[in-house]
Amino acid sequence: MAAPQPKPFEIAIIGGGIAGATLAIAFLKRSIPFTLYEQGHAFSEIGAGVALSPNAVHAMKLCDPAVHAAFQKVATKNGWESKRNTYFDILDGTSMVEKDLKELFTLANSQGQNAVHRAYFMDELSKQIPEQMCRFRKRLQSVDKDQETGKLTMRFTDGSSAQADAVIGCDGIKSRTRALVVGEDHPGMRAQYTHKYAYRGVIPMEKAVEALGEERAVNGCLWLGPDAHMLSYPINGGKTFNMFGAVTDPGDWPSMDTLTAPATKEQALKDYEKFGPAIKKQIQLCEDNLERWALFDCAEHPLPYYNKGRIVVVGDAAHAVTPHHGAGAGFCIEDSAVLACLLEDERVRSVKDLEAVFEAYNANRIERTQWLVATSRKTGDLYEFKDEAGRDMAKVEEIMRERYEKVWNFDIEQAVREARKDLGR
Ligand code: FAD
Predict the structure, then answer these.
(1) Residue 328 CA: which ligand 1 atom is closest?
(2) Ligand 1 lined by 205 (C-beta under 6 Å)
(3) Which of 22, 50, 51, 177 has a beta carbon 3.0–4.6 Å from 326's, enabling a disulfide?
């Protein structure tokens, strides 16, 4: 099929994380002209895992089958055939049973655990984006409207500037674009500390199997417990055991400028002192130079809207979320799919239509994404028996199933149809 006619406007994408990269690929497929500005010297992601659920996979396909192909190339499922649909076996982290511990219950979906090493996924995505459409080492500072041409002038911290017809902020949790949308004084301009931090570890699988037994090492597990929880899943074709342990912190985090702090295994073991051997062994297997990752989100001051004029925010810039539902990246991809489909609409013919597109995107995405931010925080507490369910496992299970269903079973095609109706209005 012939490529569609290029749209008569130029979009600036700010940020090349999962949101910016998937949006760029979705734009390429639809002949939507863009330039991507990234503050780093290249596309990059950290060396840890990210799990993507069925809603994210559907959204990838809608962005462009090339996004899904990039994911498939590096995605890893549970090791056991009998657990291919298992998302997580839910276990009691405080159990002192060393071997063959039985799960409390299992969460399963159509694709089961499906995770990637972030850096490898980003590598595959970035191969799809032509270099000439990217400007690296460009950190956005401000955006003004050029009164003569009507274009938006972006100024970068290196003193340079560039123009575009619209600016899409995919600039993550510390977004600068967020402030340009809601104003410098809005409390939602900055994400807030959720009083949880996390340890992350990537461990050679053979060591994890030796310590935990094959069933728990090669398949997704979520361990519940008081004031902390831990989860793990295989990545890197099953060669690597990816561990993530969240801890409740009654204290404050010094500053949002630095989201990580050095930590020791002794501190981590102390944080998990009420937990059983399965958890302690995972900590022992981590490298000595551990880090604590502060978990920030936008739950306390959700943005009242995601767009202002021809500026709009996408992904964590709009709705930074804790990782307790493993869904933040998936929702970034949903955002990209909806926004790209709206811009592709044949009624969108000129610069003056862009504000209506961003209005329709905002109307379509704000409720679901802010639900996730709020629910994810509560779910972190649910895993630690702090939620209304306490230690009532039947209730914990019921609540988890209900919330995960809402994350996973999302009809992205229907969402786009509704957003297009909004555009018509
Ligand atoms: P980012 O990945 O932060 O990308 C923003 C980009 O913008 C960066 O490249 C940055 O350099 C650039 N940038 C920033 N400011 C500027 C500027 N002013 N000018 C130019 N460039 C700029 N989600 C899941 O779906 N599944 C999971 O399993 C999962 N696990 C997680 C575990 C942890 C510990 C955390 C913290 C999050 C997890 N998430 C998970 C959430 C997910 O990682 C995020 O939602 C997602 O990566 C956000 O992508 P993004 O592109 O919006 O932002």
Answers:
(1) 45
(2) no
(3) 51
